[in-house]
């Protein structure tokens, strides 16, 4: 069909369609007379483009999304949007403080903290692929809002940036990549945030969590001990992840630096160690 009909069906202006064609987002056939001929696939593509544009994606982002059959790019953009919402909320809170006469020097420090948080979280998202990258990005983002006020914190921040710039690539065999894509494709940013919240609650009150989830935990541990689990892609993924974190500097560089940079993360990590100790005391076999 010609552009006039394509415009009506896709509910886009002719100029918009011409622009998307020029930007190599859609590829209609060119007829002998020079007219563009849009097929059904082109129309479906134009409808997708229209949705993505309404959601605020740039042309380059849309190009990347359309080229990615795994949906990982779209999930990554979703995390970036979530982080942007968090930053805008933090800026709104700063505007409120300014309206109440807050000191500008303090406000400036908080704005710098937002920028530094953005740098770390973006680098986390780039350094670690797929679901794992999205999870740790959102996990650590909530600990990066406080201004850097000491030389130790500044040194820790620079150490984190250097680590993320130089961390080796985390790559999986094709079999595990397919497993990860399939098993995490329906996990949204909201799901990840819910999981992080649930984890925090279990760490805040480990005795209550262990008591209320005894049956679920015992079933989980029974599965972890089973031959089925030992032969599963999940076990292989977990083994590779532990090995990567142990050899990449994640445990002995990144985590110690995070504890120095963020007081709130240092407190969280301490509570996490207490919860882990209680868990191992209740279920010592998990170490084997």
Question: What labels describe this entry?
Answer:
288 residues; mainly alpha; two-stranded antiparallel ribbon
Question: What's the helix and strand layout?
Answer:
Layout: H1 3-10, H2 14-22, E1 29-30, E2 36-37, H3 40-54, H4 59-67, H5 72-99, H6 104-127, H7 130-141, H8 151-166, H9 174-184, H10 189-204, H11 206-212, H12 214-225, H13 227-230, H14 233-248, H15 250-261, H16 263-282
Antiparallel strand pairs: 1-2
Helix pairs in contact: 5-6, 5-7, 6-7, 6-8, 7-10, 8-15, 10-11, 10-16, 15-16
Quickly describe the structure.
The chain is mostly helical. It has helices spanning 3-10, 14-22, 40-54, 59-67, 72-99, 104-127, 130-141, 151-166, 174-184, 189-204, 206-212, 214-225, 227-230, 233-248, 250-261, 263-282; strands at 29-30, 36-37.
Describe this structure in words.
This protein has about 290 residues and is an all-alpha fold. It is built from 16 helices and 2 strands. It has helices spanning about 5-10, 15-20, 40-55, 60-65, 70-100, 105-125, 130-140, 150-165, 175-185, 190-205, 205-210, 215-225, 225-230, 235-250, 250-260, 265-280; strands at about 30, 35. A two-stranded antiparallel sheet has the order 1-2. A hairpin with a 5-residue loop joins strand 1 and strand 2 (about 35). Helix 5 (about 70-100) runs antiparallel to helix 6, helix 7 packs across helix 10 (about 190-205) and helix 10 (about 190-205) packs across helix 11 (about 205-210). The longest helix has 28 residues, at about 70-100. The radius of gyration is 24 Å and the shape is globular. The protein starts with a helix and ends in a 6-residue tail after the last helix.
